[in-house]
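Progress note, sequence design subtask.
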């Protein structure tokens, strides 16, 4: 009988911990989804201060032509120049928690790029890595690829 009690306790503990982990994953997913939405908004607004707050100090961007930019270069690229995104949003977003301080996000970004009065559709797949530092989710790495119709 005592053995059943030990196993029963072990099973109950595992179920409680499993439920806690699932609830924690759900919380992480919601927090990262909010950070990802804030990133979309900062991109559209060309908001350098918001991008600065969202990017981790060691942020790295890898673009559609294998170009690599650090944090400062990417903020400058997203906020300067004549061309700009006039609309855009993330779709098909999937968030995978990697413990309680990191998450992998994949998705599709669709929008409209305007330059010299001409509009061009934007349709890309992205993979990002978010890390929690000092209680905030920050973007550490981003890799984008244009969908084949745009190449």
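Output:
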């Amino acid at each position: 009988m005592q053995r059943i009690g030990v196993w029963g306790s072990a099973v109950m503990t595992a179920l409680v911990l499993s439920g806690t982990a699932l609830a924690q994953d759900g919380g992480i997913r919601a927090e990262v989804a909010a950070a990802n939405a804030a990133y979309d908004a900062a991109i559209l607004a060309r908001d350098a201060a918001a991008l600065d707050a969202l990017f981790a100090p060691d942020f790295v961007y890898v673009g559609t032509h294998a170009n690599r930019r650090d944090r400062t270069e990417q903020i400058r690229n997203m906020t300067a120049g004549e061309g700009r995104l006039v609309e855009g949003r993330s779709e098909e977003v999937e968030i995978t928690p990697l413990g309680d301080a990191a998450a992998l996000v994949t998705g599709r970004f669709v929008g409209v790029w305007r330059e010299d009065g001409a509009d061009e559709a934007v349709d890309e797949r992205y993979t990002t890595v978010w890390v929690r530092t000092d209680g905030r989710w920050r973007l550490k790495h981003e890799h984008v690829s244009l969908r084949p119709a745009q190449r």
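Residues 2-150 form a domain with the Nuclear Transport Factor 2; Chain: A, fold (CATH 3.10.450.50). Work on this subtask will continue into the next period as scheduled.
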